[in-house]
Structure of GNAT superfamily N-acetyltransferase:
Amino acid sequence: MTDPNVAISNLRDVPYFADDIADRVWRAWWEPRGFPLDHIAGLVAGTLGDHHIPFAIVAHRGATFIGTASVIESDLEERPELGPWVAAVWVEPTFRGLGLGASIVRHAAEAALATGVETVHLCALPQKRAFYQRGGWQLDEKDVGESRLDVFSMRRS
């Protein structure tokens, strides 16, 4: 990330971005599957508590929402034994290609590992494989589940 005016914060510190996160995550993954926005808004609100996980990370320039990633207990039905997960990674289209997505994901993973867990996981479509591998993620599995996702991990060093 090269823009010194972009901050990456825990949503607990900037809770006024909760609606932005819920809207983007809902439109990207849940609206097409028929889930109501209120359901996703409730999940985002759940990241505002004082527990270690779940939590959400938000990138912003002042009051301008740029992107987000969440850390949740479980993100892949086919791998219930794994967790926690970096999930719901989103960068506003006008901010893509600037390295902000990589910064958000790295920040979320490091914050998850700082809670004391040894490993954090992430799943993504195969076309995102190179992006996550460049970010230091280890590819553990391919073609998982109906969506044929890649499963990655990052371990505490």
